[in-house]
# Entry
Amino acid sequence: MKIHHIAIICSDYAVSKKFYTEVMGLNIIREVYREERQSYKLDLAIGDHYVIELFSFPDPPQRPSRPESCGLRHLAFSVENVSEKRQELVEKGLACEDIRIDEFTGKEFFFTQDPDQLPLEFYEM
# Structure
């Protein structure tokens, strides 16, 4: 029917919380500390449709991402203006790739990454 949520495990909760709320501009729905798991769970709203669950766990293993490996390749966000979004993120200190054109759709897009090097794509609506 639709995607319910996307779960991300971060290596530094405070850094990732700041990134997803202040840099990416996502809204906090709820934040809980689960003592039995020594884990935070932060639910973040993306518009009215999707939720990112940001988790912290003690000493999570690293996930290889480059060269590309099996598994989730990247997380893509649709935006109205790719150039404006890229400029906004660059001004907030993110290293962003150059804007490219999708050869199949003709739409603009670019990549950056979160604090744990999870590739994030911003794609023209």
Q: What stands out?
A: Residues 23 and 92 are 7 Å apart (CA to CA).
